[in-house]
Predict the 3D structure of the following.
Amino acid sequence: MVIPSFLIAQIRLENASFEGEPQDATVPIGWIPCEIGTTPDILPGPWGVYQEASDGETFMGLISRADGTFESVGQRLSQSLEKGECYSLNMDLAKSNTYTGYNNSLKIRIWGSFNRCQKAELLYESPLVGHTDWENYSFSFMPKFNYHYIIIEAYAPKNKSAKGNILIDNLSLIVPCKRV
């Protein structure tokens, strides 16, 4: 069944600004760890990261390690992404130059999923984030299937050192693309 885009509601992500008590190795409320060894950090404070949040009081840091492992978190959506519909999402991204040895630039990947932490379709891959000031990234995507989950993962390109970090804050509502 195809649902007309004007009937598709905005999808709100729980704790989209990753608010919580600053601490290391803690998954923000509303999110679930999606890779073995996923221990995101609620920042600022831990690991020598002291920049201010772009929205609210805290933000999330994800890392990738020299052994090729990385961190990712997911969430069940309040409403499914619908196959063939265009959606837009914004988020603020940065990196830290003081993340206790995890200072290389990473990308962020956004996946659509049928089940908890299962990566079914890559919906977005950012460029390498090498800036330490928050910048807003806006993108659109059109899923090939109906998805109930979204996954956010740190990603290190194979030709780069994998020991890096990416900071995430201020995810917007997932909204239908504007029609012209």
The mean pLDDT is 92. DSSP finds no helices and twelve strands in the chain. The CA atoms of residues 108 and 154 lie 5 Å apart.
